[in-house]
Write a structure and sequence with these properties.
The chain is 0% helix and 56% strand. Strands 1, 3, 4, 6, 9 and 10 form a 6-stranded antiparallel β-sheet that branches. The two termini are 20 Å apart. By secondary structure, it is mainly beta. It is globular and about 45 Å long. The protein has one domain.
Length: 124
């Protein structure tokens, strides 16, 4: 489980270099859980955040939780490479400007770098 448990902690993605023609798109599915959780995770509505990566700039793909009494749980990440060549994609946690790499992988066209809670990372 990737958990953003701080209002200064967000999820970002970045490319090792610019794509030849097409920027990859990211889709993140998450849900927020109160710190004093009493129900199962299925009881919380899922939300989706969309983003477009743009070369060597760190792009927010999932915002930090807006309240300190909430943990943002990342259920699914999909970053699709529609570019003509391979792209090296890094997914990171940003903690007040300090980056922590979760996964870095070269992804060829037309594949996706995918994280699924319970299954981990894979390229499909």
């Amino acid at each position: 489980m990737i958990a953003l448990d701080n209002t200064t902690r967000k999820l970002q993605a970045v490319l090792a270099g610019p794509p030849a023609a097409t920027n990859p798109k990211a889709v993140v599915v998450f849900y927020d859980v109160p710190r004093e959780k009493k129900e199962s995770s299925e009881d919380y509505p899922r939300r989706t955040q969309l983003a477009t990566l743009n070369g060597a700039t760190h792009v927010d793909i999932c915002d930090a939780p807006s309240r300190s009494d909430v943990v943002r749980c990342i259920e699914h990440i999909c970053i699709f490479n529609a570019d003509s060549g391979a792209l090296t994609i890094s997914v990171k946690i940003d903690e007040s400007g300090t980056k922590y790499t979760l996964k870095q992988h070269a992804v060829t066209n037309p594949n996706s770098l995918i994280y699924e809670h319970g299954a981990g990372w894979q390229v499909l």
